[in-house]
Write a structure and sequence with these properties.
mainly alpha, about 150 residues, single chain, Arc Repressor Mutant, subunit A, Hypothetical Protein Yqey, Chain: A, domain1
């Protein structure tokens, strides 16, 4: 099932279950998706990869908010943000674990024929092309750098 269809189906289910926090989060996600689609006009709407990137950005901004709320002594707001993160992450593909990420980095280094840190861009591009949905590029960067001796 496509992500757009999943959002709609999950929203209906949450509404029927009267799960107000989940309904609110799903409405926020669909509103953000509509905004992103409008921003891509006159071109086509966001594809699955674009939607995944949008969801990752939403989760990341909420994680930053959780940290700030905890520092500011607002645990109730931090808990609300954490609940939203859980709903958003349910739609994201599973992330690679450390071992799988290491193997993907080694394969990309070999595929790109990279030997020095100067080739890091080629390796990152190869990783993005093959594993964009399941690989956290922020975590992959240091692994690539280490694999290239940097």
């Amino acid at each position: 099932m496509e992500l757009r269809e999943r959002f709609t189906a999950e929203l209906k289910t949450a509404m029927l279950a009267k799960d107000a926090p989940r309904v609110g989060t799903l409405r926020m996600v669909t509103a953000k998706l509509k905004d992103a689609d409008i921003a891509t006009r006159p071109g086509p709407p966001l594809d699955e990869a674009g939607i995944v990137a949008m969801l990752r950005g939403m989760a990341k901004s909420r994680r930053e908010s959780v940290e700030m709320y905890r520092q500011g002594g607002r645990p109730e707001l931090a808990e609300k943000e954490e609940a939203e993160i859980a709903v958003i992450e349910a739609f994201l593909p599973r992330q690679m674990d450390e071992a799988a990420m290491g193997a993907a980095v080694r394969d990309a280094v070999a595929e790109a024929g990279a030997t020095t840190v100067k080739d890091m861009g080629k390796v990152m591009a190869a990783l993005r092309a093959k594993h964009a949905a399941s690989l956290d590029m922020a975590k992959a960067g240091p692994l690539v750098k280490a694999a290239l001796g940097g």
